[in-house]
Amino acid sequence: MEGSGTERRALVVEDDEDIRSLIEYTLQTQGFEVTAVETGLAGVEAVHRIDPDLITLDLGLPGIDGIETCRRIRETSDAYVVMITARDEEIDRLIGLETGADDFLSKPFSVRELKARVNALFRRPRRGVAPSPVTTGPAQPEHEVLVHGALRVDVDGRRVFRGEDELALTRTEFDLLTELMRTPARVWTREALLRSVWGTDWATDTHLVEVHVGNLRRKLGETKDGPKFVRTVRGVGYRMESL
Predict the structure, then answer these.
(1) Domains and CATH numbers, the chain
(2) Strand order in the sheet with 151-154
(3) Per-residue pLDDT tens digits for 194-224
């Protein structure tokens, strides 16, 4: 892949020239090496070529839209994805998040808000992926492994297992599960999870937590009559299910 330096790389996928230029300039001022493209297909190709750390992705792209583009990107990349939409309907935002987006912005948005969202994403701890799976041998110093029933989280390797099956979680889903499992008896409010996982205090974004918890439960294999891992504490928030 191109770009072997240490500079963070960003990909802007936006068909509106004015907005594309604004995002590109804003991210450059944040220290990113920016690649900008106009279509979803070009975005998918660019992901393979430059391996970005951050992607801003317009929902209403020509050809394949932002939803399908995000699905294809998530097959090979765990970059932070910020979905950008001109539509106010809540379903657009939720669908975007279900494809693996980490956050969203509604047009029109300010440069200040874009910077704040990006900075919040990159304040999360980012560990490299370990080449070896979790083993049952002697514990390695500073290698954090969390266990809760059938779930096992290799924090340093950023890998999650249910039994012997490895689960494919997005960065946000992984960070959310890790936070819950580190203190399984704690009831996390949505606002507390926003601060800890997303690095934001925007109370209006609590639905981000709700959508990601729903996605996480689905990937953990929770069903109506099957095992439960994440418990909703009505009127408060979430905690891990008691064993």
Answers:
(1) 9-122 (3.40.50.2300), 145-240 (1.10.10.10)
(2) 145-148, 151-154, 159-162, 165-167
(3) 888 888 766 567 788 888 899 899 999 888 7
